[in-house]
Specification:
Layout (H helix, E strand, L loop, with lengths): L3 E4 L6 H11 L3 E4 L14 H14 L4 E4 L11 H21 L3 E4 L9 H19 L4 E5 L12 H10 L6 E6 H6 L7 H13 L6 E6 L1 E2 L10 E2 L7 H9 L2 H4 L3 E3 L6 H12 L4
Parallel strand pairs: 1-2, 1-10, 2-3, 3-4, 4-5, 5-6, 6-7, 7-10
Antiparallel strand pairs: 8-9
Helix pairs in contact: 1-2, 3-4, 4-5
């Protein structure tokens, strides 16, 4: 049975995310484990960690996903930012281990004009460094990207290069973002396009590497390169597209975490109901 959840706020403390997940009827959820708008962060409070782990266990939530700070760029050629990004990534992995998270999700970053191959080398080295710094064993999923500007990870072949270049490849997975894929030119909204996408995933990273789905509808058109998430059924993937995605056994076995626009709690409830309505 497919698990469904959302990215949730930790305002008021980590345990509040579990409360919000229960109220919304989520199976699992995603959070930031540190301030997403700053490279600085306060240490986790032991009492908060203990309360979070207890509340999560009591509620039977799965999965718990930690999303890496958006400011992290482990593809950058800028040495100071690269070193800081490596340290923050290591801290994210350590925090995920501490709170009992199942998955950490990261964006590969931007190469800033230095080219994909050099960037992939930097990303892989950063991941190895972060694991060795943190001594974490949490699965790190690299997310496919929309391909805007100098973004790394537009294709699954690029994600495979990163994984193959890591010494810790056995701990790595892929997070399949539906909006990013559509924006990058993968027509996941049609049966034929989805077949081609899954075939490409199978021949590159391998379907077994895909550990979760970021289920987001797309505001932009196919191949636009625009990372603009829309509410489920309101964008260019649509309910038919998500129904097709959820009809595939390789996809239906995965947890679906929504990162859709939220203007009110009703938006979250509507989107969860909409994605669940797509289960064949």
């Amino acid at each position: 049975m497919t698990a469904f959840g959302m990215h949730l706020s930790v305002a008021g403390g980590l345990p509040k995310a579990v409360t919000r997940a229960i109220e919304l009827g989520c199976d699992g959820f995603q959070v930031f484990a540190r301030n997403p708008r700053s490279m600085r962060a306060k240490p986790l409070e032991p009492e908060q960690v203990a309360a979070f782990r207890h509340a999560r266990e009591e509620a039977g939530m799965w999965p718990v996903v930690v999303h890496v700070n958006y400011l992290v760029n482990v593809a950058t050629p800028k040495e100071e930012l690269y070193d800081l990004s490596c340290d923050v990534l290591g801290d994210e992995l350590a925090r995920a281990q501490a709170i009992g998270a199942d998955i950490v999700v990261m964006h590969p970053g931007h190469h800033l004009g230095t080219g994909i191959d050099e960037a992939i080398t930097r990303v892989a080295a950063a991941i190895d460094r972060a694991y060795e710094q943190s001594d974490s064993q949490v699965t790190l999923c690299i997310e496919n990207m929309a391909g805007a500007g100098t973004e790394v990870g537009r294709t699954f072949a690029e994600l495979k290069q990163i994984i193959d270049s890591c010494r810790h490849g056995d701990l790595l997975g892929v997070c399949f973002d539906t909006c990013h894929a559509f924006a990058a030119g993968y027509d996941v909204a049609t049966p034929e396009g989805l077949d081609a996408t899954l075939d490409e995933i199978s021949s590159t990273v391998g379907l077994q590497r895909v550990k979760m789905v970021h289920a987001n509808d797309a505001m932009g058109t196919l191949g636009s390169g625009k990372d603009r998430h829309h509410n489920i059924g309101k964008g260019n993937i649509g309910l038919r597209g998500f129904t097709e995605i959820l009809s595939r056994p390789a996809m239906a076995r995965l947890p679906f975490i929504l990162e859709t626009p939220v203007n009110s709690p009703e938006d979250q409830e509507r989107d969860l109901a909409a994605i669940r309505s797509c289960v064949p």
